[in-house]
Amino acid sequence: MDISSTEIKVRGYHLDVYQHVNNARYLEFLEEARWNHYQDYPPSYFVDKGWGVIIVNININYKFPAVLGDTLDVQTSLIKIGKSSITFQQEIEIKESNKIAVSAEVTFVIINLKTNKILPIEGDIEEVLTRTKK
Amino acid sequence: MDISSTEIKVRGYHLDVYQHVNNARYLEFLEEARWNHYQDYPPSYFVDKGWGVIIVNININYKFPAVLGDTLDVQTSLIKIGKSSITFQQEIEIKESNKIAVSAEVTFVIINLKTNKILPIEGDIEEVLTRTKK
Amino acid sequence: MDISSTEIKVRGYHLDVYQHVNNARYLEFLEEARWNHYQDYPPSYFVDKGWGVIIVNININYKFPAVLGDTLDVQTSLIKIGKSSITFQQEIEIKESNKIAVSAEVTFVIINLKTNKILPIEGDIEEVLTRTKK
Amino acid sequence: MDISSTEIKVRGYHLDVYQHVNNARYLEFLEEARWNHYQDYPPSYFVDKGWGVIIVNININYKFPAVLGDTLDVQTSLIKIGKSSITFQQEIEIKESNKIAVSAEVTFVIINLKTNKILPIEGDIEEVLTRTKK
Fold first, then answer.
1. Could you tell me the residue ranges of all domains in chain D?
2. N or C: which end of chain B has fewer CB within 10 A?
3. pLDDT interval class at B89 (50, 70, 90)
4. How far apart are the CA of A107 and the nearest CA of chain D, in angstroms?
């Protein structure tokens, strides 16, 4: 499946006491990249379908600190489609040095927003998530 | 009208490139203190009434930088009730030095969540906002 | 003086309980746009000069709520150069509707990072801030 | 080893498009609780020692969504001391329902801030981290 690329510049407000990008901020960068990965679908698309996209696990490795002025490339790909969950791999590369700042696996379930029940990953849902229909 | 007090410790993730609390983070501190100011009302109270509490202006002076480990006291008081708006004064004092880090005036309107119309500040709304009914 | 333009897409993590962009988040959008306004200067430029760029006041009007999926255009211009302070005007326009979500004036002083003294806005500092030298 | 407890009220600005606490915000809650866990040591203590406390991995399970008005209890304990890394277990319990919102394991290394080398977890470092000296 295809890999999308999202560019983010590291600014002063992304840093913390160590002058590195803060650990929580990276999760916003990863979320930004996932919204971007599905940019062909308007935000209302999922809601209109009655689907909630809910994170169940993030396993994130902090490998190399990103600092002020770095240009980050957040690479996002769907690596696993289970019966009831999907997993994205996301890597954040510092473009100036080609070092990997962060690598993460992010696992979701899709719920029916009315019943809160977990939906199987099949049919429409699978098509949208794998972006085979545009 | 009475002044409420909310204590916040400055942590590493509140800081930015200058090792001071970031300008945007102070607005979260002010919002935290306003939620605390009305803690006698459950969050659903306003929604159940159909009232939306919407900020229209913040005028904030950054006077002295708060740094890691500072204990902040966010003092909040309602200083003005207009026909259709209310204004809070909020000061953030660094307890260790008694210096004022930030002073702000924050102005709100109350809207009807269904019609989006601005409501006059009177009756129930005024009672709740001035916390005369508990 | 020239106006720069910074585009930001409103994502799910920018919203709050009202499903509008949160008041504090707009300050990050404004800061993002100011970093972008001076993108021709590397972040180290100011530090190497020994200059700290410190906010003293933000006066921000929240005019119209931005919501999920909106495309924001943050327009930034330097509107006033005083003896010891500078003021930016920043407007955030929702591109889909041409409505102004936010308008703000943001005032800074420049300090000597070693002495913490406020520096006069003249010479090198004025040239950089007005971006007449590139 | 002992477990510390940090209370956080869920406010409007912690929520996102789903009206749940946002996934990135939980990492700030976990960080807040870790600062609190070591509150007997002033923030300068680690810096004065020349130690940087650097996250290498967070594995976080999102189990049940926390919503506006929930009172969260962030329970933090050091569960593993390796040769060169330490791991905290952190659980966020919703006090009103006793449901676990989040469980996480957070792994750190300690570096020498001058050389950036990873330090072995022994002697002073171990004493401080296990809080046996107060």
1. 4-129
2. C
3. very high
4. 9
